[in-house]
Specification:
Bound molecules: 3-hydroxybutanoyl-coenzyme A
Strand content: 5-15%
CATH superfamily of the largest domain: NAD(P)-binding Rossmann-like Domain
Distance between the termini: 60 Å
Strand order of the largest sheet: 3-2-1-4-5-6-7-8
Radius of gyration: 20 Å
CATH topology of the largest domain: Rossmann fold
Shape: globular
CATH architecture of the largest domain: 3-Layer(aba) Sandwich
Number of helices: 11
Helix content: 40-55%
Length: about 300
């Protein structure tokens, strides 16, 4: 297996742009692939903004920021990934699209490169089977916002080789993250625990245990969480959470992973959270207003 020097990132959305950013910050030449230039432009604007915050706070100089940007190569051509040592996929959570993307890249990217996926709930084993390099296929699950969150879950399947797993684990450390080793069980470690907690917060709301703001306040002030469950749901995206629950419920058939009716209705109503301007809170004003607020 080659020493990892050049990184490929598939997808320049919220997660892909964050992954590309930290790879470039860690000194790797990083190629970022998107289907259309407009998605690259949007993702690169986000990277520029995030790095700008570090410059503002004196954590990085303007020269260092320019160097990081210089290590990032946006592209819409699969061919530009040919000589990458690791390819990290962070496209939309569509299993068939992911599989066809890997299958196409399998023929282009050098045979000893590692393939990895940032999927939050899909089975790494199934994705790996779309390629001829299942032994070199490892899950790499990052957390939002990628530049700030320290954790990466490094996921091995029953066919992942020790060498590929260890190389990916060491690579995660080089990205400045704290990796943990996970088996390929849906939701890995964090979402397996986080998702039932978030769903339980919605059930508590449905049952009238407390208001949105009070439940959030309870977990922030009572347990020291950085965000209460409804703020976090809006931050992650209710559509994303709903998708994850569907996959996890399908896998485990346990009620704790089943979507409460309110979550489904929120998604039906287009209330996806911060990204759509409203979720459990409305973000159109100066301060977020909870949807059950009487004020
Ligand atoms: N780039 C650079 N800096 C950033 C940033 C970014 N993308 N996002 C936030 N920051 C900086 C801010 O500028 C600020 O810097 P400062 O302390 O030097 O002023 C600092 O981070 C803190 O930000 P804020 O003051 O805006 O707000 P918070 O103190 O609340 O911190 C947070 C923001 C880091 C997002 C914090 O609220 C947090 O940790 N929230 C929980 C996030 C979480 O749980 N993420 C995991 C979601 S689950 C997931 O991703 C898995 C998936 O599969 C579902």
């Amino acid at each position: 297996m080659p020493t990892i020097q050049k990184v490929g990132v598939l997808g320049c959305g919220l997660m892909g742009s964050g992954i590309a950013q930290i790879a470039a910050q860690a000194g790797f030449q990083t190629v970022v692939l998107e289907v259309e230039q407009k998605y690259l432009d949007k993702g690169f604007a986000g990277i520029d903004k995030s790095l700008g915050k570090f410059v503002e706070k004196g954590k990085m100089t303007a020269e260092q920021k320019a160097e990081v940007m210089g290590r990032l190569k946006p592209t819409t051509s699969n061919q530009d990934l040919a000589d990458c040592d690791i390819v990290i996929e962070a496209i939309i959570e569509n299993k068939e699209l992911k599989k066809s993307t890997y299958a196409a890249l399998d023929k282009i990217v050098k045979p000893d490169a590692i393939f990895s996926s940032n999927t939050s709930s899909l089975t790494i084993t199934e994705l790996s089977m779309a390629t001829s390099r299942a032994k070199q296929f490892v899950g790499l699950h990052f957390f939002n916002p990628v530049p700030m969150m320290k954790l990466v879950e490094v996921v091995r399947t029953i066919v992942t080789s020790n060498e590929a797993f260890n190389d990916t684990f060491e690579f995660a450390k080089k990205l400045g993250k704290e990796p943990i080793a996970c088996r390929d069980n849906s939701g890995f470690v964090v979402n397996r625990l986080l998702v039932p907690y978030l769903l339980d917060a919605i059930r508590a709301l449905e049952e009238g245990a407390g208001s949105i703001e009070d439940i959030d306040k309870g977990m922030v002030l009572g347990c020291g969480h950085p965000m209460g469950p409804f703020t976090l749901l809006d931050f992650v995206g209710l559509d994303t959470t709903y998708f994850i629950t569907e996959v996890m419920f399908e896998e485990y058939r346990e009620k704790r992973f089943a979507s409460p009716p309110l979550l489904k209705k929120m998604v039906m109503a287009g209330r996806y959270g911060r990204k759509s301007g409203a979720g459990f809170y409305d973000y159109s004003g100066e301060k977020p207003v909870a949807m059950d607020s009487k004020r």
